[in-house]
Each structure stands twice: as structure tokens, then as C-alpha cells.
Sequence to fold (167 residues):
Amino acid sequence: MSRPSGFTLVEIVVVLLLMSILGVALLGRSITTSNLDLNSAADKVRNQLRFAQAEAMKRTDTVWGVKSSGSEYWMFRDTNPDNAANQVRVPGGDYPGAINRINENDLGATLVEDFTVFFDRIGKPYSAYTNPSTNVPLLSTLPITVQAKGGTETRTITITPETGLIR
Fold:
């Protein structure tokens, strides 16, 4: 009696099992904890920017924003980000010793460039804001680069002018 051509069920299961084992081994080597840490830090900054924008839209009496200077950044309300009385607790900023400012040790990454962004009552971003008649709207996309601490890999967060879309 001749056997029909093709693979048996056992052969197919063995091949799939071997391919699964190889796939898991290769995937485990390609994802490192530094990549996960960098993605986490970028997501944290992005969400804190969105929080400042949401607060500005909920509390229509003043602008809100985020400022980065040196190795730290902070959230503020009103037009003077450097005034300590205007600085507010950053969500997720419950690190030991951190009150209103988050530094690169707390974040686990570095913000490459300094920036200041204000959001008005409709969520529109500004690069400078003194009062509603003399403010400077964001004229081009604002890139915020987050770099792995002690590494070269980066993630970029962008704020779009007019709409304030944060990606």
C-alpha cells in the first residue's frame, strides 16, 4: 500500500514547536531593558505635557505649561515659570526628594534641549506668554528629545502648533 505524499501531523507540530523556540530566543535578545526604560521616560514626559495642557483647558483662568532647564523640568501655572509660587507638583513626581521638579535621575533619561511651552484655555501651545494680547504662539513643531541615560538612543516628542497635538 502506498502512502500519500505530504506531512504528518506529528511533523508539522515538531516544526512549529522548533520555530516557536527560535522565535522566543531571538525576540528575547532584541528587546533590552534600556529600550523599555527610554520608552517609559518618553511616555512619562509626553503624559505630563498632556496633563499641563488639560489643566489649562479645565481651569480657564490662567495658562499652564512645562519648562525644562539644565537637567530638570517642572510644571507651572501662570505666566512666570521660574517663580516658585507658580510651580505645581508634577504628576508621577513622587520621587524621594522631588517636590515640584523632576531631574534626569528621577526620570531615568535626559531631556536633550531646554524648552518652555505654555498652553492657553483652548490647549493652544505658546513659546512665550505674558498676557493674551502679547503672547507668542508656537510657530513650528516643537521637538523634545529624550535620550537614554548614558546612551545614544533617543525618542522624540513633538508638539504641533495651533492644535497642540502632542505625539
